[in-house]
Amino acid sequence: MNVNVEADRPDARCLLFALTKGRRAMLAGALALTALAVLAELVPFVLLYRALERLIEAPQTLAAALPGWAAWLGGALLLKYLAYGLAYLLSHHAAYAIQAGTRRQLVSRLARAPLPWLHGQGSGALKQSVVQDVERLEAFLAHHTVEASAAVLAPLCAAALLFWVDARLALAVLAVGPLALLGALAFLPGSRRDHDLFNRATAALNNATVEFLRNMPVMKVFCPAGTGFPLLRGRLHDYYRLAGRITRRTVPGWALFTSLLGAHLLLVLPVGAWLHVRGEVGAAQVAFAVLLGAGVFRPLLKVSRFFMDVPEIFAGLRRMAPILAISPPPRLPAGRVAAPVEVRLAEVRFTYPSRPVLRGVSLCLPPGSFNVLLGPSGAGKSTVARLVAGVLVPQAGEVSLNGEPVAALDEGERAGLIALATQEVFLFSGSIRDNLCLARPDASAGALRRALRVAQAEALVEGLPRGWDTPVRELGTRLSGGERQRIAVARALLAGTPVLVLDEATAFADSLTQRAFFRALRAEYPERTVLAVAHRLHGLERADRIFVLEQGVVTASGDHARLMRESAYYRSMWRLEALNEQWALASGGEAAHG
Ligand SMILES: Nc1ncnc2c1ncn2[C@@H]1O[C@H](COP(=O)(O)OP(=O)(O)OP(=O)(O)O)[C@@H](O)[C@H]1O
């Protein structure tokens, strides 16, 4: 798998720049139009200045000037309306296009992502990148392109206008800006740490809430009073304690900042009066500075929201980076592995981050053979199944098909060679047939029926309201665990792969169904190389080879007779099962007689 190493600490700005490719002209257009709208917003202030001048110096000429000013005002309003309207149109258009493009890229990379990499990602984390992070980016670009740039440009233009009127009055108005900033900065130390803590507390609370909601039915059974989930209570407590602390810390700084920003009169009034008394500025200039100064910094409050959103957006971009860095592995010539297939594990070692699981496992599954993997819980059986299926890659040793390492196979080629059915069954929306034909959409009705018959699912599908055309959604929770599992097994059989891995895929089946399934599997698909992980032996004692895995190593292998001689674990398992079966028969017989 090619995942850029840089992706671990990717530069979010570079990524943002790359994602906006092809839409930058539109965003630049939105910015230009915003600037035009901000300029149009200044026209009323210029007119106000002229009006004040006339009012003070020549009030009799005011009436004659009014119609012209009204036309200017109307024109400026129209221009502002058009410029803002077009700017929002462009920014939204660009943002939606970037959203769609980013999602398309993420989804296509994920579709090409190697199975082992996908297996290591949580579905929640992937959902956050593909859904929430992209949506947040869209909202940010659509709104902040116009609003944040207007909030920055408006004070700049207002300041330029003040300087045009009088530089000293302008400085008196603008001086409160740095003062407000200094006041706010005094409360800033520790805010980054608070921000990190808050993010962590929010994530922990979200996880606890999801766990609580998921486990609510169990909670209802065991603790109807709802007192049995201390984790959520603890997380809620931590969250509100932290939120309270951050609020107490930030509110004084924020209040000082907003109060000082509106306190321009403190300086401009005495300075203006002093300059006026000295005859250096007119009353109109002082009045204009007072009026314009009242709103000069107000837009900056919006910019603070922009800065609050930026870290979130950049964090989202950093989460997307590893997905976007996935590049398809180089295409190797297909068809290097042809059926029938021999599966070989050579000295395979595998360690999960938590602990080592396989400590040198070697297996050989000859072409067309039927193999069973048994062992106590936690021995590593599912890990072996996932390694054979190419979902995991061993840290040492090799898993190969006809001598070709599974890890080196093209994704498409691997999918055409190995099918995996596990206990966890995922049926996606669509009909039962769509689910069955996932790997082979062109499967014939005959192949479909054969797979269903072998998977012991024929009667089940026939009993559905519309047979295999029944939509899964229509069934809701009607399918039991065992029924879903049978559909999944039929899907794996229908894939037509020469290697079939069944990881406890018959766990829900009763002993008779399991027996019938394995018998039919051997009879109908004798050419397939099968590895079945199982807990129960029903129907498996006739397997070509049985492997016993204990604590990450194969402790015995061979046929039933050999294992009965050589493996204490196998013997005890077999006796226990024989005992269970006798007991079941006896109790069945008693029931029949009674
Ligand atoms: N994704 C994972 N991350 C960390 N540890 C894991 C992971 N999957 C499995 N393990 C651990 O590896 C060990 C072997 O797990 P595995 O599922 O392969 O065993 P198993 O023999 O199939 O067990 P069982 O019969 O109970 O299903 C277990 O201790 C398990 O907790």
Automatic annotation (TrEMBL):
Membrane association type: Multi-pass membrane protein
Matches recorded under PANTHER family: ATP-BINDING CASSETTE SUB-FAMILY B MEMBER 10, MITOCHONDRIAL, ATP-DEPENDENT PERMEASE MDL1, MITOCHONDRIAL
Gene3D superfamilies hit by this protein: ABC transporter type 1, transmembrane domain, P-loop containing nucleotide triphosphate hydrolases
Principal localisation: membrane
Signal peptide region: none
Record key words, sorted: ATP-binding, Cell membrane, Membrane, Nucleotide-binding, Transmembrane, Transmembrane helix
Parts of the chain that traverse the membrane: 25-49, 69-90, 146-165, 171-190, 254-275, 281-301
Subcellular location: Cell membrane
Xref: Pfam families: ABC_membrane, ABC_tran
Name the record gives this protein: ABC transporter ATP-binding protein
Entry GO CC: plasma membrane
Record bears the keyword Cytoplasm: no
Domain ABC transporter: residue ranges: 343-576
GO molecular function terms listed in the Swiss-Prot or TrEMBL record: ABC-type oligopeptide transporter activity; ATP binding; ATP hydrolysis activity
Keyword set includes Manganese: no
